[in-house]
Design brief:
The protein is an alpha+beta fold. It contains 1 helix and 5 strands. Strands 4-3-2-1-5 form a 5-stranded antiparallel beta sheet. Strand 2 and strand 3 form a beta hairpin. The radius of gyration is 27 Å and the shape is elongated.
Length: 117
């Protein structure tokens, strides 16, 4: 009966520290295994980038802007994002011509004659 409080402390430590650390490590391993060339990622500082090189097992090369490639530690990858679909998304149920607003030109001098700005 004297060891019961000590046993409760050990169980609380395992539940509050060890298990969440294991879950974080498992999530990081899944993120690392999902890396491939051209995959969009989010880096630890909030930088959105695209994987440009995976030559070194400790580092990753990412493109943060067109033509700008930087090297990060692999552990800096926080999230692998879904690729962005480029191009217009067309809904066949909506007529694009009927839903357009009339063109409006607010440049000075394009109003009716005699109008002052």
């Amino acid at each position: 009966m004297e060891l019961f409080p000590l046993l409760l402390l050990v169980l609380a430590f395992v539940a509050l520290v060890v298990l969440p650390a294991r879950a974080r490590k498992r999530q990081q391993n899944q993120t690392q295994s999902a890396l491939a060339l051209g995959v969009p990622v989010t880096m630890a500082g909030g930088v959105y980038a695209t994987v440009a090189g995976l030559d070194d097992p400790a580092t990753i090369q990412v493109e943060i802007a067109p033509g700008v490639v930087v090297t990060y530690a692999r552990q800096a990858v926080v999230q692998v994002r879904q690729p962005v679909v480029t191009g217009p998304v067309v809904d066949p149920a909506v007529d694009p011509v009927a839903d357009e607003w009339p063109a409006r030109d607010d440049r000075p001098g394009d109003g009716p004659p005699g109008k002052t700005l």
